[in-house]
Amino acid sequence: MSHPDHSLSLAAPHSGSLDGLQKAALAVAALGVLALLMSLPMEQVPHAGLWLASALLAITLGALGYAWRSYAHRPAGIRNDGVWQTALTSRGAAAWVVGVLLTGFYVVLYFYPQYLGLAGEGKANTGIIALFDPLSRLLSGNPASQWFVYGAIYTVAILSMGVKFILKYRHNTYQVVRTGSVMFFQLGFAFLIPELLARLSLPYNDFKNMWPLNYYFFDDWNVKGMIDAGGFGLFMLLFGVAMIFIISPILTYFHGKRWYCSWVCGCGGLAETAGDPFRHLSDKSVKAWRIERWVIHAVLVFAVVMTAALIYSYLGGDSAKGFWVTRGMLLGIIVIVLGAVAAVLLIRPGMVKEIDRTARFVGIGVAVLLIGFTAWAYFTGRGDIFFVQSYPLRKTYGFAIGSIFSGVIGVGFYPLMGSRVWCRFGCPMAAILGMQQRFFSRFRITTNGGQCISCGNCSTYCEMGIDVRSYAQRGENIVRSSCVGCGICAAVCPRGVLKLENGKVSGRVSSDPIAIGRTGATLR
Amino acid sequence: MSMEKVVIIGNGISGITAARHVRKRSDARITVIGKESAHFFSRTALMYVYMGHMRYRDIKPYEDGFWAKNRIDLEHATVARIDTEIKSVMLSNGSAVAYDKLIIATGSESNKFGWPGQDLPGVQGLYSLQDVEAMEENTKGLSRAVIVGGGLIGVEMAEMLRTRNIAVTVLVREDRFWGGILPRPEADLITRHMREHGVELRFNTELGEVLAGADGRVRGIRTTNGDAIECGFVGLAVGVHPNINWLKESPGIRTRKGVLVNAFLETSAADVFAIGDCVEFHTHPDPQRKNIEQVWYTGRLMGETVARTLTGERTAYDPGIWFNSAKFFDIEYQTYGWVRNELQDGEAEHYWEHPAGRSALHLVWNAESRVLHGVNSFGFRLRHDVFDRWLREKATVDHVVEQLHEAAFVPELHHRFEPAIRRSFSQGSTATA
Q: In terms of C-beta density within 10 A (0-12 exposed, 13-18 middle, 19 or more buried), how is residue A160 classed?
């Protein structure tokens, strides 16, 4: 039924394919990319500042010009025309090419930064990293690194594709404000503030990047760096801990996990902007949902075990001198937290009533097992807990989860598996926020009575692979742990059936389907 | 005792709703016979497949494994006739399916009114999966199309064609868009919006004949006024009628325009029921409604009602408060209760339209008691349960306007329309018929 063409267009392929202005804009953006790539083999980059500024400007202006031409001169509305008929957005040849290029970029970035021109000890940068030196010096005073280059390109991507997204959804205030928010947090919190901290000789810190998404937050060098940085450093440490245990639970209770995942987070920010043309590629099957639950919670357990083991082992060493937390206290905290989890799963008070059987037993099992390990460590006075070497474990996590899962697969596979592979299957932060959203939050997507026509737009355009329709056509509200509250299901619904809302916690899961007939026939 | 066998002819929304609810309520053996497709799909979503928003598989509301898991047997076949004597459905492939209870849910067919040239290649309606496949072929490399009929299917076809930059002219028999349903201001709003999308509308214009080219395909049309329009495609969107031709060989089941049923959806044959688009009531249980009603939602309600009857709880069809919805290009439409195309005797009304011309609210009420009769809303999502309650409880228009925020279902952070509507309402300009 579908007839993919070979257009590279991200918008309507049939609407005049590409007109002159769109082609010109794409050419300008391509020249900008080419200008960046040209620096790769260079030992020294002449006029690096001007060169870089021109290249980034060309990319931004080209992207904006293209977006302007594609959306702004047409009436505002849902413009998914040709999405499944265009090679790039329907896993055609162009999608594979882009997927391979993106994946390759991440492999080089993480494992072979020398090919980008990263300098060895005491030497000057070359290639594309040297190209970014002037911008880095301007912000932090230091030469660029591969992470600076990556951060700068990432920010440009979110900003320019964010403007495109805003033009595309300009009739929907929620989308406009939300996208403005991710653009703000990327530019300010993820990019500029950390660079300015470096200029002030303070430790690098992205304030919005919480543990366990920020898996190195509790690494000894990071904690020590913050403590050694005086009053402001201590504030960073306390703020980071408060984010995890106080700020994030409160915000998630009132607004759902969307306050983070689709309003603040950088991974979410890229997915919502640059990843938007690929959101429909997520797998909606029940099978994918089952895999999702196993994998994401396994990563969460991995992150918790790795972090606890790491803290435990360095608390016993010299580097922890002056920390007021001791091994005994850490073990106490672990037992209390895991004990609380196990108790909630065991007793199943109120809202946790409907938890899945398997989830319940696996959760209790894991918690009890880890409590046992912790007790063992306490009573034997071992140098490690959970019977693992903490530093190799930390390295494995950084490689397998931090680099491969979140980067290479998470972004590299955008054109093949959709834009939220990492957020859905991998992110331990999303797992924690998700549990809270599922059981202790005011957020839900309300279904509007009997108006659903089962068309499937909501499910198709759900980047998290939630089969929204299966709830909507039963007249049931949607309360799912994975929902990031992007609001696109409600936007694409042609019959006004879905609405993101915060409201009373009780009765939010299954609203009564609207009673239609006086004799009690109900539409569900 | 062997389990009762329920056979359903038609795997559209009515038949499938019946099957699902019979399964929920009983252990009966269930067979659904479908001619059009192997699995149930959402007919209302066919336009999105053509426009590239979704693939065919995306408009199937249930995974293919759902049916076996719920013990609903699917038969992709055509029915030749029903033998009500031996209680058996004869398929065109020669086999027979015996039933204890039979449900007919065969939907509609597109209308054609005997125009010369109406069967030429390149002339088609839009109802079935096969129609969309044909439209894909018929519009390849096309630059101009004519659509006959200014209603829901007409505007859908126009939207589909416009996504491929095909010039579209719509012939509308009435003096306004969807004139049999919409009051004048709403029709004008939609007309302006369609024109913004590059659609040409010709009112008070009817199709005279379809003209053939040398290649035997459509090359244009002539209107009854004698105007000729060149085009390579003609979309016929002049309504549908019950799909009952195939019942000619089944004399046990009485038909008129549709399969005749009583309030319990029972046909003239014992243990044979009919639901959905193909049904014609002797007398509709709700006197406000027509005896044939082709709406997604009523199909669902009938499916659920008949499932109750079949599982031991004989239930009369009672559709409750009328509601419907549609989307015209970018403008969503919802309606609750009755807003007729012309104000009825004893009714009063208020029409509000946002200055941008993409949102509107039309309230109609009893001039004397001020009880609300109905609401039309455009670009302004309303809560179904709130309006359903208000209409049931006979709320006055004053109460509804006062409490309108309760019914607003617009996205968060969206501009609120209620203050402007209240101001406009209190300033009057209320017409009474």
A: buried
